[in-house]
Specification:
heterodimer; A: alpha/beta; 2 domains; disordered N terminus; B: alpha/beta; 6-stranded mixed sheet; 4-stranded antiparallel sheet; 10 helices; about 25% strand; binds adenosine-5'-diphosphate; binds magnesium ion
Chain lengths: ~475, ~270
């Protein structure tokens, strides 16, 4: 409702259903391959074998597995100690091939993506699509003219096979396996994800979209995304994620590595909408070189626990980093999200805008770090986090950290926490809004400054998801 | 047949403190009533209670619209029944565009059965209507894209209330000091706005300290409130008299209420 008049028209057609509308799942009996539960060297070998990988990758996986076993669990953030790593399926392949036409995708899976609206969106406004189902990408497309200009948009497994040199130059270099326990886990069992290369000067106008779908109970999804935006190039990548509602947990632990070279521009938008039983523990990092612009737009809805702090390393003068983050923590959910900005060079600037909403006993935390390395003079950083708490059961925390080794810098931090105003509710209700509608309107207004940064279709989607979260549950 | 808004022996308290002490008032569709009275006597309280503000405790009496017990309804239902309050202090709703807000409001009030998520009135019709109404009360159409009352001047906020009134076309409207704090041009704009809107289908209760609003919108009845009670009712000349001479004579004629009024102010 906070979008433009033209957008509103489209919203009319959408009548919300139920609390979480993506909670359905497909049968799994036709799967091509399913690993047994649990994690050990044998499982890792099996994955590597299935994928017919070169030896270096298998060695990389095995050493990452050791790192995973050795690293302690993070002692901060959320209740990760409840994850039972031996109860998870680490690899499942639902379809034999990666298809270029939706007609060739197995029917159950195709129907799922139809319900998620992906093929339709593809026709209307996307430059390319990747659809990952469980562990593998099952569908991929890219507009022909982009392919002709040398743009690569494939699944990460194919990239390892088809572009080995480019792949090896960057893979695991931005986020090494020993960065943190979950990065190590992903490095050991990764499968799928997107690989993007945008050649110098190529500007991709429409978004490239990836959609990640978990279907099975106790599934572990570990996609690995690597994106290289070459000098003066620009692109926008969008990912969406959903999973069925089950009574026991699934795990999503991705690693996303990005390089934006001189003068490049890249925006990575996430609209994640996990069901309530997903642990979402993701490591995302970008390196931004001279005069480039890297932006994370991070919409976190759903999941049981999300721990995600997209980071930007500003490597050379003139690099700019921006993170816009929206988190909605509903009943039974903990969103521990934020941003990390590392100023490694002089004259770099960063901006973080975070808006969190907690409702129905949900907990939203902002956790952010701004770090300025020695000699990085004339840096600017501005952090604003606003929290909106909808009821007395819900909780919001802010953990801003600053580490500055240089003092010729300008750092600003503002934080606010507000409750939904009784007077605002009354005002809207006295104009005929129901209490739920009025609350939803206030919440949509609260995130509007971020939502308006999104392309129209995603803004509509974001507002619709927020409205679903708000629906029928007030008063 | 015209509908009646009937307030009988209404008693209201806030935080245990009695504010309204037996208010009686009957307004028919098509009539204009003025409500006057010194600051703190309870005028806004009456307005809020009719609109259904949750903070007020009803300790006695009834409010009925055409026989329907209004007190049982929440503010949203009251709005859909055809009640409207132009706020003395309209609140700001950051991030919510005027046009989106109005389209939802209009859809709900014109289709009282509408549930959340159901269709809104068609964009094309709404846009045109909004544009027409805005130009009638002299609001720049650019305001449709602004966030509701965010950064609006006092006069702009009041005009926005009148715009809502004109779109929602309630059966009964209460205007709570819609003329306060406005310069004379703004008061004229608002007065003319109300004058255009008023007709056989709208009953209006104008709460005001000034005469300007009443010049354009001549009341058939003027009520004077003192310490939570309506103590006198007259015609337009009473409003004129109060404006010219103040409340001293009223207090003299109603010593019991005047004494309570003082008790209240001393305590406060
Ligand atoms: N929400 C409230 N909380 C506490 N006291 C209130 C509230 N609203 C009104 N009052 C008190 O009730 C009395 C009447 O106020 P009000 O109705 O605003 O008067 P008026 O509009 O006639 O100036 C005053 O003493 C005021 O302080
Ligand atoms: Mg008042």
């Amino acid at each position: 409702m906070s979008t433009d008049l033209a957008v509103q028209e489209r919203e009319d057609q959408d009548v919300g259903v139920g609390d979480y509308q993506f909670g359905f799942h497909d049968p799994t009996d036709k799967y091509v391959f399913k690993s047994r539960r649990g994690l050990d060297r044998e499982i890792v070998y099996q994955i590597s074998e299935m994928k017919k990988e070169p030896k270096w990758m298998r060695d990389f996986r095995i050493s990452s597995l050791e790192t995973f076993f050795q690293k302690p669990m993070p002692s901060w953030g959320g209740a990760v100690e409840e994850i039972d790593f031996q109860n998870i399926f680490y690899y499942m392949k639902a379809a034999a091939n990666l298809e270029k036409s939706w007609e060739d995708v197995p029917e159950d899976i195709r129907k799922t993506y139809d319900r998620l609206g992906i093929p339709e969106a593809e026709k209307k406004y996307l430059a390319g699509v990747k659809a990952q189902y469980e562990s593998e990408v099952i569908y991929g497309s890219l507009q022909e003219d982009l392919a002709k200009q040398g743009v690569l948009f494939t699944d990460t497994d194919s990239a390892l096979r088809d572009h080995p040199d480019l792949f090896r130059e960057y893979f695991g270099k931005i986020i090494p396996p020993n960065d943190n326990k979950f990065a190590a886990l992903n490095s050991a069992v990764w499968s799928g994800g997107s690989f993007i290369y945008v050649p110098p000067g190529v500007k991709i106008e429409f978004p490239l979209q990836a959609y990640f779908r978990i279907n099975s109970e106790n599934m572990g999804q570990f996609e690995r995304t690597l994106i290289i935006v070459d000098e003066g190039a620009s692109a926008h990548y969008v990912e969406g994620c959903t999973a069925p509602t089950y009574s026991s947990e699934s795990l999503h632990s991705a690693v996303v590595e990005i390089v934006v070279k001189r003068g490049g521009r890249f925006r990575y938008t996430t609209i994640q909408n996990w069901s309530n039983n997903v642990y979402n523990l993701v490591t995302k990092r970008a390196m931004a070189y001279g005069d480039s612009l890297m932006e994370w737009v991070d919409g976190n809805l759903g999941s049981k626990l999300t721990m995600k702090y997209p980071s930007i390393y500003l490597m050379e003068p003139g690099a700019r980093g921006e993170t816009l983050s929206i988190a909605f923590a509903n009943n039974g959910q903990h969103q521990d999200a934020g941003a990390k900005m590392v100023h490694c060079a002089p004259n770099t600037s960063s901006r973080v805008v975070s808006k969190s909403i907690s409702k129905g006993g949900g907990r939203a935390s902002y956790r952010g770090l701004v770090k300025v390395e020695k000699g990085a003079t004339n840096c600017k950083s501005n952090v604003v986090c606003d929290a909106l708490i909808l009821d007395s059961k819900s909780r919001s925390d802010t953990y801003p950290y600053i580490e500055a080794e240089d003092d010729q810098i300008s750092l600003e931090h503002e934080a606010s926490v507000s409750k939904i105003g009784e007077e605002q509710l009354f005002y809207l209700m006295s104009r005929g809004m129901t209490e739920a509608e009025a609350s939803a309107m206030i919440v949509t207004g609260f995130i509007e400054p971020l939502v308006k940064e999104l392309p129209m279709e995603y803004a509509v989607e974001m507002n619709r998801l927020i409205e679903l979260q708000m629906e029928g549950s007030v008063g | 047949m015209s509908a009646i808004l009937k307030i009988s022996d209404l008693r209201v308290a806030v935080d245990g403190k009695p504010i309204l002490k037996g208010v009686n008032l009957e307004i028919r569709q098509g009539e204009i009533h003025a409500l006057m009275g010194p600051n703190g006597c309870g005028k806004s309280t009456l307005a809020y209670v009719v609109a259904g503000h949750p903070k007020y405790e009803i300790t006695g009496g009834t409010i009925e619209l055409d026989g329907i017990n209004v007190l049982e309804l929440d503010p949203c239902q009251r709005a859909r029944l055809g009640l409207f309050l132009a706020f003395q202090y309209p609140v700001t709703i950051p991030g919510v565009k005027v046009s989106d807000f109005l389209r939802h409001a209009v859809s709900n009030v014109r289709n009282p059965e509408r549930k959340e998520g159901e269709g809104l009135i068609p964009m094309k019709d709404f846009r045109k209507e909004l544009k027409d109404r805005m130009s009638e009360i002299d609001i720049d159409s650019e305001f449709a894209r602004r966030y509701l009352n965010d950064g609006f001047s006092g006069g702009e906020k009041k005009r926005m209330e009148i715009l809502q009134l004109s779109l929602l076309r309630p059966r009964f409207a209460i205007l709570d000091e819609t003329d306060s704090g406005l310069d004379s041009d703004a008061v004229r704009a608002v007065s003319e706005g109300i004058n255009k809107l008023h007709g056989p289908h709208m009953g209006v209760l104008i709460i005001t300290h000034h005469e300007r609003l009443l010049e354009f919108n001549k009341p058939s009845f003027t009520h004077v409130m003192l310490a939570g009670k309506i103590v006198e009712t007259g015609d337009a000349s009473l409003a004129h008299d109060l404006h010219a001479n103040g409340y001293a004579a009223v207090r003299e004629r109603h010593p019991a209420e005047a004494a309570e009024e003082q008790a209240v102010t001393v305590k406060a």
